[in-house]
Specification:
With about 190 residues, the protein is an alpha+beta fold. It has one domain: Lipocalin, CATH 2.40.128. It has 2 helices and 10 strands. Strands 1, 2, 3, 4, 5, 6, 7, 8, 9 and 10 form a 10-stranded antiparallel beta sheet that branches. The radius of gyration is 19 Å and the shape is globular.
């Protein structure tokens, strides 16, 4: 009787360990897919309501053990010194099938313009320089095609852009693209 129970517990524990290893591998892959240089040239070229933007995403705080931290800076190529977006993303494992992309804003973003070009500069930045965008976490899962797909949950992501009271985000990341769909809602 005890042998049977031990065998079941061992199988369950082995399954949990395998799930955690798989999630850690997926997290590394998500970091790889999200890091680099991106633009929306195709979108801006086909829809005049969108301006051309370039986004640089770099891995920072490499010594941290709580997932990966990525600095993202987005600007019009004609004026790279005036980013329209500067955020820190914290990506980490929630469970054996879900990864989280948590968004932080800088309290003084102008201090960090262009730092993507030398990510080691962030080693001197304290966590207190950031403000957590509570409720804006994106919950991601890997699909059978190897893409990471996810969205925010509910209406807790506060936004005041263009009269909105909150926003939702849908997210798709693959080896060849990164798509964000943000919607401001009242």
């Amino acid at each position: 009787m005890k042998k049977g129970i031990f065998g079941i517990v061992f199988v369950l524990l082995t399954g949990v360990a395998f799930g955690q290893q798989k999630s850690a591998k997926d997290l590394g892959l998500l970091k790889q897919f999200m890091t680099g240089s991106f633009d929306n040239a195709e979108q801006a070229g086909s829809d005049s309501s969108f301006s051309l933007l370039k986004m640089q995403v770099r891995h920072v705080w490499a010594k941290r053990k709580d997932g990966y931290w990525l600095y993202a800076e987005q600007a019009n190529p004609a004026d790279l010194n005036k980013p329209v977006f500067q955020h820190m993303f914290h990506i980490y494992v929630q469970d054996d099938s879900t990864l989280i992309c948590q968004e932080f804003e800088f309290k003084e973003p102008s201090l960090y313009v262009g730092w993507w070009a030398n990510p080691n500069r962030f080693d001197s930045v304290k966590f207190s320089a950031l403000s957590n965008r509570l409720g804006c976490e994106v919950y991601l899962r890997k699909d059978p095609l190897g893409q990471f797909i996810g969205a925010t949950d509910g209406n807790e992501c506060i936004s005041t852009i263009k009269g909105a009271s909150y926003s939702t985000t849908e997210f798709l990341v693959s080896k060849t693209k990164m798509n964000f769909w943000e919607k401001g809602l009242e």
